[in-house]
Automatic annotation (TrEMBL):
It comes from Cohnella terricola. GO terms for molecular function: ABC-type quaternary ammonium compound transporting activity; ATP binding; ATP hydrolysis activity. The complex is composed of two ATP-binding proteins (OpuCA), two transmembrane proteins (OpuCB and OpuCD) and a solute-binding protein (OpuCC). The chain holds residues 1 to 230 of 317 of the full protein. This is Carnitine transport ATP-binding protein OpuCA. Keywords: ATP-binding, CBS domain, Nucleotide-binding, Transport. Residues 3-230 form the ABC transporter domain.
Length: 230
């Protein structure tokens, strides 16, 4: 169970060296994994292969023992929430409509969706009475990112992919969002793959940190191990 990368390579056309270079990893169900490394080391590419936004050049990725290439893309993505730095909320839609996108695609009944929206907003500490009917532009960056997390979790995915989700947020808000995400992850036992170039953020959040350099994994260890054996 969990997510297993086996000799995963990604080589973009017309490039000298692979962006992801023979990565093998064994990630346990419910782990909070942080990919850490400088810009350009392949973190985003690795993440985007998990929900098949990109194909692998070679190697395999298995989720709960099944090769993701054996799973239909739509089906795969239903089980995977995705949060990026630009929260990607639809600007013309209210917060409640943004959160409801995936449940509506899945044809949940509206009463269930309505209840779910309140639950999710409360989970990320936004008062539903205040926020449901607003549009993204009427929220701060930090509040928008909370909605982004709520939306990614709407249909109850087992896995969350998060690509520098707090990168554009001021330091104080970032700390509170990190704490909240940590609490939510412990509570809901999601497997989280989180990308950052911020060492403090990695140490704060991760069960285990995957340090990357030029497409390769150079360290895979707990924050404690990394602090005591840098
Ligand atoms: P990171 O997320 O660690 O910043 P990326 O995965 O975005 O790294 O990029 C890894 C490498 O792959 C970089 O050298 C980048 O320039 C290259 N790269 C990323 N996306 C593409 C693309 N679509 N086409 C060609 N090269 C790309
Ligand atoms: P970018 O080009 O910035 O990397 P993407 O093309 O990855 O953006 O994603 C575009 C939008 O689609 C984003 O708002 C993202 O949240 C959403 N999205 C992409 N893949 C998924 C997924 N697997 N599940 C849910 N939302 C997704």
């Amino acid at each position: 169970m969990g997510i297993v990368f086996k000799n995963v390579v990604k080589q973009y056309p017309n490039t000298a060296s692979p962006a992801v270079d023979n990565v093998s990893l064994d990630i346990r169900e419910g782990e909070f994994i942080v990919f850490l490394g400088p810009s350009g080391c392949g973190k985003t590419t690795l993440l985007k292969m998990v929900n098949k936004l990109y194909d692998t050049t070679s190697g395999t990725i298995e989720i709960d023992g099944t090769d993701i290439n054996q799973v239909q893309t739509e089906q795969l993505r239903r089980g995977i929430g995705y949060v990026i730095q630009q929260n990607g909320l639809f600007p013309h839609m209210t917060i409640e409509a943004n959160i409801a996108v995936v449940p509506r695609l899945l044809k949940w009944d509206e009463a269930k969706i309505d209840k779910r929206i309140d639950e999710l907003l409360e989970m990320v500490h936004l008062d539903p009475k205040v926020f449901r009917k607003r549009r993204p532009s009427q929220l701060s960056g930090g509040q928008q990112q909370r909605v982004g997390i709520a939306r990614a979790m709407a249909a109850g995915p087992k896995i969350l992919l998060m690509d520098e989700p707090f990168g554009a947020i001021d330091a104080i808000t970032r700390t509170s969002l990190q704490d909240e995400l940590h609490r939510i992850q412990r509570l809901l036992k999601k497997t989280i793959l989180f990308v950052t170039h911020d060492v403090d953020e990695a140490l704060r959040l991760a069960d285990r940190i995957i340090v990357m350099q030029a497409g390769k994994v150079v360290q895979f260890a707990t924050p404690y191990e990394i602090l005591t054996n840098p």
